Each structure stands twice: as C-alpha cells, then as structure tokens.
Amino acid sequence: MILEFNALPWSDAILTAVSVDRSNPGIQDEVVVHVRWPDGRNARVVFLECRGARLALNFGVLGEDTIDRAYVDEDSKLLADGRRRWAASGVLLPRLQCFRIETCTTASSLDILALGWRIDSQ
Description:
Blueprint: H1 2-6, E1 14-24, E2 28-36, E3 42-56, E4 65-72, H2 77-88, E5 97-103, E6 109-121
Antiparallel strand pairs: 1-2, 1-4, 2-3, 3-6, 4-5, 5-6
Protein name: Immunity protein 50
C-alpha cells in the first residue's frame, strides 16, 4: 500500500479541494483530497478510517495549488503520538499510517492518519 501511494503522479498535480466526512462518527471518518493529475484527469483520494489529521493550509494566493510531493511518512511524530494516544485507551493500531501531502504554491501540508485509502475517479 505504501509503494502504491508513493508512486502516484503527485508531482505537479493540482490540489483542488479538501473535505472531511464525519457524517457517521466512528464509522465513517474520512478525509477526501480532490486532485487534478498532470494528465488532466480529476480524482478523489479518499483516506479511510481516519484517526486524525493536521492540515496546515495557507490561503489567499491567487492561482492553483500545485503538489510538490506526497508520501507515507513512516517517521512522523504525529503518527507516533496518534498510536500512543490510542494505545493508552487500549486500542493498538499497527496498520495506522501517516499520509503526507506537501504543496508548492502555498507551502501547505496535510498529514492524515488513516488505516487505508482509495482513489475514486471523477
């Protein structure tokens, strides 16, 4: 799953929207990142069974927000803290991963703690 995510054509893709779906808390906790790939296709990258997110988004820039890179951050402090917090309540999450997306245009970053992900074409 890590190699597949890291291998997507992130560089020069456009971040068009980010949304959080907690319509069924604890059951459906999802973060959706809308992207336009370099070939022009639109997609939704849906992060499933989320346990947390840190979205450092910068606004006010006129222009599209280009993605610099995205990868599974196995050394994330946020990931270690998230696992530790859940373990304190008796829930072990060895499959939890930190998906990191960094943009060029606004120097924004998204760190999403999730157990899985999928791509939905638009």
